[in-house]
From TrEMBL:
Name of the featured protein: Sulfite oxidase
Moybdenum cofactor oxidoreductase dimerisation domain ranges (all copies): 235-347
Residue ranges of every copy of the Oxidoreductase molybdopterin-binding domain listed in the record: 38-205
Names of required cofactors: Mo-molybdopterin
Amino acid sequence: MPKPSLIVRKLDPENKETPIQFIESGPIDNKLFFRRNHFSYPSLSQVSYWLPVNGLVNHPKLFSLEEIRMLPSRTVKVVLECAGNKRHFLEPKVYGEQWEKGAISEGYWKGVPLRDILKLAGIKQSAREVLVEGYDSGLRTDTDKIFTFSRSLPLEKAMHPDTLIAYEYNGQPIPFKHGYPLRLIVPQWYAMASVKWIRQISVIGSGFNGPFQSVDYVYYPNKETDADAYPVTIQNVNSTIQKPLNMEILNTGKHLIKGIAWTGKGVITKVEISLDHGKNWSSVEIGEPANHGYGWTSWTYEWSVTKKGEYTIMTRAADSHNRTQPENPFWNQKGYGHNAIDKIWVKVE
């Protein structure tokens, strides 16, 4: 039987989706984990790899990989979702990778809490943010200048015990294409925060304004101007129908509808389904909330259909912070954070 493979959106830099509709359960094997790159892959050597920690610290440090692996570790199950996931479905259309529903994956990440590394260096009182720079770099067409991919975290998020400098994924060294040898993992934030191929960590005393923080990964809600812009951070509550497939032809009888739901705040508390284009809603059976991690929640619904015809199936999720998927997506210039009610169409013959 053929096995699913990544869906290509771009070859250089490599951007590929997880075939989310064919994933039975998590964690996602690294070969099917979505790939999001702004530049070509960097050239790295483990032999000469060191991690500098500098800036507003009392004791600048230079860590070897062996030293990092010897520190107390944590393992967390995390959903990583590209901020542009589902951009393809936004209307009016916006430029950017036209991700459908597969710019999302989940798995177990093992590493050292970033706060432990920072405590060893001693954070100064004037510290405001923690800047993480990757090894990936290249030319930005909007400026004609070369930049490295760099992002900062507010001190509070950087010091969260589950914000990790990770070195393993699903019990194995992080694959090179997903950030080997060290990758930042920031649970509940969109995946742009989880910087790959960490080059250095700097504690800074002001807000970072690099292009991947002040230009990209910013919500611009107005079509003509940049007014009222604000940064992309926490994942929205969301859901995806995995089965049946969109535009699938079904027979009458019983069908198992299944999917996933996830959130960047708290846990999923409810998923509802509509089989009549949103006129009526029913609760579905949801799996155990991800109380011990930040993974997605699987859900199922048994549908008995006796009447032939065309059906619109819709799902909406809610979380423990009273956030619910909206009927319509929040339009913004770059198409981030799409979390409108999920929708597919099927025909019953």
